[in-house]
Design goal:
The complex is a heterotrimer.
Chain A: E1 2-8, E2 17-23, E3 26-31, H1 36-47, E4 50-51, E5 54-60, E6 66-71, E7 75-76, H2 80-87, E8 92-93, E9 101-103, E10 113-115
Parallel strand pairs in A: 5-8
Antiparallel strand pairs in A: 1-2, 2-3, 4-7, 5-6, 6-10, 9-10
Chain B: E1 2-9, H1 13-24, E2 30-33, E3 49-51, E4 60-61, H2 62-74, E5 79-81, E6 85-89, E7 94-99, E8 103-114, E9 118-120, H3 123-126, E10 136-138, H4 139-149, E11 151-152, E12 156-160, H5 164-175, E13 179-185, H6 194-201, E14 208-210, E15 212-218, E16 225-230, E17 243-246, E18 249-252, E19 256-258, H7 261-266, E20 290-292, H8 303-321, E21 331-335, E22 339-343, E23 346-347, E24 355-362, E25 366-375, E26 378-388, E27 394-399, H9 401-404, E28 412-417
Parallel strand pairs in B: 1-2, 1-8, 2-5, 8-20, 10-18, 12-13, 12-18, 13-14, 21-28
Antiparallel strand pairs in B: 3-4, 6-7, 7-8, 9-19, 15-16, 16-17, 21-23, 22-24, 24-27, 25-26, 25-28
Helix pairs in contact in B: 1-2, 1-8, 4-5, 5-6
Chain C: E1 2-7, H1 11-20, E2 27-30, E3 47-48, H2 59-78, E4 82-83, E5 87-91, H3 97-110, E6 116-119, H4 120-126, E7 136-140, E8 144-146, H5 148-161, E9 165-167, E10 172-177, E11 182-186, E12 189-198, H6 204-211, E13 218-228, E14 239-242, E15 252-255, E16 261-264, E17 268-269, H7 280-293, E18 302-313, E19 319-322, E20 329-333, H8 339-357, H9 381-390, E21 397-399, E22 404-405, H10 406-414, H11 422-429, H12 442-453, E23 472-473
The chains are: A alpha+beta, B alpha/beta, C alpha+beta.
């Protein structure tokens, strides 16, 4: 099954318009890129696009109300909104260090949710 | 009166980097004045990632980036006055500040570094007609509610302005449960990073309406909707193209303005285009011993360049307080065809190191144009640029070798040309 | 049973309440908004008119002159910012000069002091930023500028301190004259009062017409304004008018009592008494008209625009006094310009009439002024230091554009008739009225209001219950 997709490369400000041909879900040709980074980007983005999830969670007993969090690595793009649902109702107890694991193995991706801000205990 | 060697106004990324740089030059007596209860400035509410690729070769979130500097500062003798608002700076570098714990503070500084950042343009500055309901926020204010306080300022959102803050908030609001109906942009192109268009709009199927603006806000007590209209090449709304979009929230991402009230009070000369202080290559303003860096100087897109600029500023302030600065002839950097502004606006060739980093912005989108530097009407640089856009801060390096064998330097100018 | 119920908590209603509070009377004010001074009283030019353009023999002229004469000492007593900066009425052509002279003579007849006709050169020397196209001007040194919020609020607070009851969020639904009293049905209950004072602004005709056969007809006349940053607040020093036309005083360019620059208003009749929206045409009109007076309008310094509705009565004059056919019903109707100027005088006049009618003696324990909220920004460095030493909350800045402290915000909440919304805080302290228009301070003020009033932050509103800021919690919207 052949498919052609159009996307904008985000690796540098030029923003080449890429034309990507896929066969059976695999990238077989990338056109429009000025450099190899565009080709690499197209290959990932068209097959298994990934994103870093960032959000915030309420803190209990901390000197601040909220702690910012992120996924320790990128997770599949299509899991973003579902991952957000996992965070509903979660609270994090102070003290918190940067890098503390809040949730491990989000949706079986092997990626953890970690704190990106330190919050001292009240 | 209390004294210090260097007073730094603002504990955001600019102030933090400048403080560390000056400290590393041997200045131990430094005070950072920060009005919030924590250091980090705007980075504290920028919980998304994309910071630090150049500075740390890692992709960090805003708070993580700030933390790197805060950690290092905590190991030094740099004093940090939190919850402290500077209310006046005199021409002879007396800093007046107030704080609930320290009361009314007066400090005589040998040098001052202005690092106050910027504020957002409000609805009133755009004169969008309508009632004055609740539900209209500048993107940064909404970001504070969502990212620092955990509140959603609205549910059905229309965003005006496709600069990075607007795009980032489109994603934030969506992830936290709101429905962002569209982002309107009055220009025919977006001022934001391509990466943000993809990851904040495309990822969530949020339409970007270029050449569109909001011409009316509906709702008396709370926003009930907006009238969105197509605009022509002169950015005037096209009659008949009105579309009513129901929503309860309008986010405005329509421009950042360097926060120079204090600078003006001190008598610092402000550049009309950057809206920040005029500076020379040492980031010194028109008042000797008063320096500036970061968004207060000119609005940046990447925090990494803020940090780099602030390091130069910190170093310069350190050199100044050591009494090591000599007078030197000043040469203006003239902006011509296509160039909106440069920072710095002047420099002294005799005090140059191997090269001088000049940052600039162009006034339109240019594809396949040439960047030119002229010294005394002689062209010394003719560099092809694939793409130049107003939303991307650019850099040109002035090389010392261009000035070394010249009798006198009368003018240096930067311009764009098609050929 | 009340002795007096005042319909409307604008500057007129609060002026009447203030003066009545000196007497041994049970007085109440019924106001449909969430705060006093929330409608026309907060959306006007803030001008204390000299009285040159009031028709000779009219009530407008009479109360204008009285109000103007007493304004300086009145404002000093109540802690209301006021400056007698003088007015200039510009004339742009020789053919228009006779109209200026007519104004001059009318002013003399009205009793306005210090009037002078100035030549073009004299005017430009006073005001170098004016359009050099002008021909001449009338200088009225008794003109001034005042803070309309404080003029209303300080009087309301004194009234409250002296026992006047304020019923906010209370909408009058039905008014009926009974044998010896009036019955007022509101959304929050039924009131009865021996006398009623009609200060209902654009709705004053409706309430008068419920009880009197001398029918009034009030048309809302919209005035739109543009407000500019304090950085251009000294573009002109005087309040600069253009020759008035049949709709009103024309577009004015003026500094405000707080140091901003204000231009406006438009003057066009509308039908909807609730329509206080600004319009594209209206804003464009005031900018265009202002250009006739000043060389350049500094559009890059605009910080906001707003609109207010004048209560224009068909007869063209104030209607003040007891209704002939409805004893005990006192009108202060058709109060459009120079209503703000006239307010203190109208208050005294009606209080005299009513206290005499009810044969009310004065109170012996009347408190005739209150301490205003300290203006931290204007304090000297020594004063600032003393304030912070006394109360560390003066050391915490909340509004950075106007330099307003936490102590001031809290005080605004805990005073008599304390603020419960952001707009109410703004009118009492100026927090949020600066160049960033609340971008920085609004989240902080929401938090402070929520803590002080012990309410969830989601209940905090801009003005009135329906204008809440925060719709929900992150991740919890449904």
């Amino acid at each position: 099954m052949s498919e052609v997709r159009h996307l904008t490369c985000i690796k540098c400000p030029i923003g080449c318009q890429l034309e990507v041909t896929l066969e059976n879900g695999e990238v077989i040709q990338v056109k429009g890129n000025e450099c190899i980074r565009g080709e690499q980007y197209a290959k990932v983005e068209c097959v298994r696009p990934t994103r870093t999830l960032t959000s915030i969670l309420p803190v209990t007993n901390g000197v601040e109300e909220m702690v910012s969090v992120k996924s320790s690595r990128e997770i599949p793009k299509e899991l973003l909104l579902e991952a957000m649902k996992l965070l509903r109702g979660l609270k994090v107890e102070a003290p918190i260090q940067i890098g503390d694991v809040i949730l491990s193995n989000i949706l079986n991706t092997g990626v953890d949710l970690i704190a990106t801000k330190a919050v001292k205990r009240k | 009166m209390d004294k210090t060697k260097i007073a730094i106004i603002g504990g955001g990324p600019a102030g933090l980097a400048a403080a560390l740089a000056a400290y590393k030059q041997g200045i131990e007596d430094i005070i950072i004045f920060e009005r919030e209860g924590i250091l980090g400035g705007i980075l504290n509410q920028c919980i998304h990632n994309g910071f630090g690729l150049h500075t740390f070769k890692e992709e960090l979130t805003g708070p993580e980036y700030a933390h790197r500097y805060i950690e290092e500062i905590s190991k030094t003798s740099i004093q940090v006055f939190l919850d402290t608002m500077v209310i006046d700076i005199t021409t002879d570098r007396i800093v007046y500040a107030i704080s609930p714990t320290k009361g009314f503070i007066q400090v005589q500084a040998d040098a001052v570094i202005l690092a106050m950042g910027c504020r957002e343009r409000p609805r009133g500055a755009l004169n969008i007609p309508g009632f004055r309901p609740a539900g209209i926020y500048s993107a940064g204010t909404a970001q504070r509610y969502v990212n620092m306080e955990g509140f959603m300022p609205g549910k059905e959102v229309v965003i005006l302005g496709s600069g990075d803050i607007g795009l980032i908030m489109a994603r934030r609001m969506t992830l936290e449960g709101a429905h962002v109906k569209m982002v309107c942009e009055i220009l025919p192109y977006s001022g934001g990073l391509k990466r943000n268009i993809v990851q904040c709009l495309d990822d969530f199927n949020i339409p970007l309406k270029l050449s569109h603006t909001i011409t009316k806000i509906h709702g008396k007590f709370r926003v009930e909707g907006v009238t969105v209209q197509h605009v022509d090449a002169q950015r005037n709304p096209i009659p008949g193209s009105e579309e009513f979009v129901s929503c309860d929230t309008v986010l405005l991402s329509v421009g950042l303005i360097p926060e120079n009230e204090l600078s003006r009070k001190a008598g610092v000369l402000i550049h009309p285009v950057t809206q920040g202080p005029r500076v020379n290559h040492r980031f010194e303003t028109s008042i000797p011993g008063v320096f500036a860096c970061g968004n207060v100087l000119h609005v940046h897109d990447l925090v990494d360049w803020v940090s780099e600029e602030a390091v130069h500023t910190g170093n310069a302030a350190a050199t100044f307080v050591k009494g090591l600065v000599e007078d030197a002839k000043k040469v203006s950097i003239l902006t011509q065809e296509g160039i909106r502004y440069t920072v710095p606006q002047s420099f002294s060739p005799s005090q140059m190191e191997k090269f001088l980093t000049v940052r600039f912005r162009v006034n339109e989108v240019y594809r396949d144009y040439y960047l030119n530097v002229y010294v005394n009407n002689e062209r010394v640089l003719h560099q092809k640029k694939r793409i130049l856009a107003p939303g991307e801060m650019e850099t040109v390096l002035l090389l010392k070798q261009w000035f070394v064998d010249k009798e006198s330097i009368d003018a240096v100018s930067i311009s764009l040309s098609k050929e | 049973m009340f002795d007096v119920l005042i319909i409307g908590g604008g500057v007129i209603g609060c002026s009447v309440a203030n003066q009545l509070s000196q007497y041994q009377l049970k007085v109440g004010v019924i106001e449909r908004s969430s705060d006093v001074c929330e409608l026309t009283s907060k959306a006007n030019s803030g001008i204390v008119h000299s009285g040159v353009d009031a028709k000779v023999g009219s009530k407008k002229a009479y109360f204008n002159l009285l109000g103007n004469k007493m304004m300086a000492s009145f404002c000093k007593q109540y802690g209301v910012p006021f400056h007698q900066n003088g007015s200039l009425i510009l004339c742009f052509s020789e053919s228009d000069y006779p109209r200026l002279e007519i104004l001059y003579r009318q002013g003399l007849e009205n009793g306005v002091q210090g009037l002078r006709l100035l030549s073009k050169e004299e005017v430009l020397q006073l005001e170098p930023n004016l359009n050099p196209n002008l021909f001449a001007a009338l200088h009225a040194p008794t003109g001034g500028i005042v803070d309309p919020f404080k003029l209303t609020l300080m009087q309301a607070e004194v009234a409250k301190t002296n026992g006047v009851e304020f019923f906010l969020n209370t909408t009058l639904l039905h008014l009926a004259k009974k044998d010896h009293y009036y019955q007022l049905e509101t959304n929050l209950g039924v009131f009865q009062s021996k006398t009623v004072v009609n200060c209902a602004g654009i709705y004053a005709d409706y309430w008068n017409n419920q009880v009197s056969n001398r029918k009034l007809s009030i048309t809302p006349r919209k005035g739109e304004y543009c407000l500019f940053d304090k950085q251009v607040g000294n573009l002109v020093k005087h309040t600069v008018f253009q020759l008035p036309n049949e709709f009103g005083k024309g577009v004015v360019v003026t500094p405000t009592a707080e140091g901003n620059l204000l231009i406006g208003p438009t003057a066009y009749d509308i039908e909807d008494k609730e329509d206080i929206a600004t319009t594209k045409e209206g804003i464009a009109y005031v900018v265009q008209k202002a250009k006739e007076s000043i060389k350049e309008v500094p559009m890059s310094f605009v910080i906001t625009a707003f609109a207010g509705l004048r209560a224009t009565e068909k007869g063209g004059d104030f209607i003040i006094g007891e209704a002939e056919d409805s004893a005990g019903f006192f009108n202060a109707a058709g109060i459009e310009s120079p209503g703000l100027t006239a307010a203190p005088a109208i208050g005294i006049h009606l209080a005299n009439l009513i206290s005499e009618k009810l044969k009310a003696p004065k109170k012996s324990n009347y408190i005739d002024h209150n301490n205003g909220i300290v203006d931290f920004d204007k304090a000297s460095n020594e004063e600032k230091k003393a304030l912070i030493d006394q109360n560390h909350e003066y050391g915490q800045i909340v509004c950075r554009c106007e330099l307003i402290t936490l102590a001031q915000i809290k005080e605004a909440i805990h005073r008599p008739l304390g603020a419960t919304t952001l707009d109410a805080i703004k009118r009492r302290t100026r927090a949020g009225s600066g160049r960033c228009q609340g971008g920085f301070c609004a989240p902080r003020i929401v938090e402070i209001l929520s803590k002080e009033l012990k309410k969830d932050p989601r209940e905090i509103a801009k003005f009135g219950d329906k204008s809440t800021f925060l719709i929900g919690l992150d991740k919890e919207l449904e």
